[in-house]
Amino acid sequence: MTTLSLTRPRVLARTGLYTVLGANVALVTVLFADAGPSADPLISIGRLFGMFGALLMAFQLVLIARLSWLDRRLGMDRLTSLHRWTGFGVLWLLLGHMVFIVFGYANLSDTGPVDELVTLATTVEGILQAIVAFVLILFVGAASARFARRKLAYETWHFIHLYTYLAVVLAFSHQIFEGSSFVGNPFARAYWWTLWGGALGAVLLGRVILPLWRNFRHRLRVAAVVPESDQVVSVYVTGRNLDQLPAKAGQFFIWRFLTKGRWWAANPFSLSAAPDGKSLRLTVKALGDGSASLRHIKPGTRVFAEGPYGAFTTMHQTKQNALLIAGGVGITPIRALLEEIRGHVVLFYRVNKHDDAVLLQELDELARSRGAMLHLLAGPVNAQDAHGNQLLSAKNVAGLAPDVWDRDVFVCGPPPMTNAVLRSLRELGVPRDQIHAERFSLAS
């Protein structure tokens, strides 16, 4: 099988997304032109910005709908990144929409922009909803900025993001009342209803219907809780018909353990063993109150799991052999991949000290059973080998895996480690299609 055919899932999904978006941009431009010019050029520019902003907002909903077909091919990392950058586009387009519209009408009425904004908000139906929607989008955008995201708990950030749906409803109601391409044009009305209905339907399907159906079907429960070390614990989950759950090694679920104090907390944890149709296993390090409390979960506890998610799977393997690189508890999806991945495997496990290497005995046994090579790279952040090279430098990677150019490379660990490995692989000239990275901050 050729490299091209093996990489087609990701290329197909990316091409499909951009093609659909491009076609809609063209159609919205046609609808704008068909509506004709406004009384002031600034109003026309504002209208165009508003229409493109509405289109991007609908596209954003599709990106976060967690549709299985897209997620398996692109991964939540890429979809979330694209969603984030699209969000900046929505913000600037809606800001431009508001500014140009207000200044345009201010020119016509010969008043100041602030007075005109107040007049529009108090006299024109749908304008106040649009202003509230814009404020909500600003609020969500501020909470999503990197400095804010680092300080917010996952649950808090997730709750704030729910206001996006209220903003969408308010923005659409504004479009119904005031959209020039909507009012009086049956085709335009059908298009926008279909666009928004499809986007919201995708969210409903991926975020509500499918998770509810899978949890009703599989009835997940905690089977056992096994301490791996003082700070690391493995949780075994069983249920009905798990052989029909479409989970792959390297993927993760968003887990809720339905106890009195934890039912509201949702955390993304990777599978730490390949699914066998009988049980699922996650292995978690105590990095916060939520993950630390898993040690005290009792067998029999009901579990609500959303997923499986992630493109960090053998679906994207393009070569016969593989190099797996893990850092810290990023070993969990790598440990699962070691069971499923094809061909000869070399595994680098990067830890600060030997005692941090969780699941090491399992890894050693599994590596020996399948003829893989396991390298434990222990030492502080700036540790060097005998030749003065950083442990994950390009020279060290090539020294431990001399045929790295003929392997797929799967990388999972904390962002600084992952970024360092990606730099080394770029320095070595490993083709991008052979590099697969999962961000530890999202999926572990």
Automatic annotation (TrEMBL):
<feature type="domain" description="FAD-binding FR-type">
    <location>
        <begin position="215"/>
        <end position="315"/>
    </location>
</feature>
<feature type="transmembrane region" description="Helical">
    <location>
        <begin position="45"/>
        <end position="64"/>
    </location>
</feature>
<dbReference type="InterPro" id="IPR039261">
    <property type="entry name" value="FNR_nucleotide-bd"/>
</dbReference>
<keyword id="KW-0001">2Fe-2S</keyword>
<feature type="transmembrane region" description="Helical">
    <location>
        <begin position="12"/>
        <end position="33"/>
    </location>
</feature>
<keyword id="KW-0479">Metal-binding</keyword>
<dbReference type="InterPro" id="IPR013130">
    <property type="entry name" value="Fe3_Rdtase_TM_dom"/>
</dbReference>
<dbReference type="InterPro" id="IPR017938">
    <property type="entry name" value="Riboflavin_synthase-like_b-brl"/>
</dbReference>
<dbReference type="InterPro" id="IPR017927">
    <property type="entry name" value="FAD-bd_FR_type"/>
</dbReference>
<dbReference type="Pfam" id="PF01794">
    <property type="entry name" value="Ferric_reduct"/>
</dbReference>
<dbReference type="GO" id="GO:0046872">
    <property type="term" value="F:metal ion binding"/>
</dbReference>
<dbReference type="GO" id="GO:0050660">
    <property type="term" value="F:flavin adenine dinucleotide binding"/>
</dbReference>
<keyword id="KW-0812">Transmembrane</keyword>
<keyword id="KW-0274">FAD</keyword>
<feature type="transmembrane region" description="Helical">
    <location>
        <begin position="126"/>
        <end position="148"/>
    </location>
</feature>
<keyword id="KW-0285">Flavoprotein</keyword>
<feature type="transmembrane region" description="Helical">
    <location>
        <begin position="85"/>
        <end position="106"/>
    </location>
</feature>
<dbReference type="GO" id="GO:0016020">
    <property type="term" value="C:membrane"/>
</dbReference>
<dbReference type="InterPro" id="IPR050415">
    <property type="entry name" value="MRET"/>
</dbReference>
<dbReference type="InterPro" id="IPR001433">
    <property type="entry name" value="OxRdtase_FAD/NAD-bd"/>
</dbReference>
<dbReference type="GO" id="GO:0051537">
    <property type="term" value="F:2 iron, 2 sulfur cluster binding"/>
</dbReference>
<keyword id="KW-0472">Membrane</keyword>
<keyword id="KW-0411">Iron-sulfur</keyword>
<keyword id="KW-1133">Transmembrane helix</keyword>
<dbReference type="Pfam" id="PF00175">
    <property type="entry name" value="NAD_binding_1"/>
</dbReference>
<keyword id="KW-0560">Oxidoreductase</keyword>
<keyword id="KW-0408">Iron</keyword>
<feature type="transmembrane region" description="Helical">
    <location>
        <begin position="160"/>
        <end position="177"/>
    </location>
</feature>
<protein>
    <submittedName>
        <fullName>Predicted ferric reductase</fullName>
    </submittedName>
</protein>
<feature type="transmembrane region" description="Helical">
    <location>
        <begin position="189"/>
        <end position="210"/>
    </location>
</feature>
<dbReference type="GO" id="GO:0016491">
    <property type="term" value="F:oxidoreductase activity"/>
</dbReference>
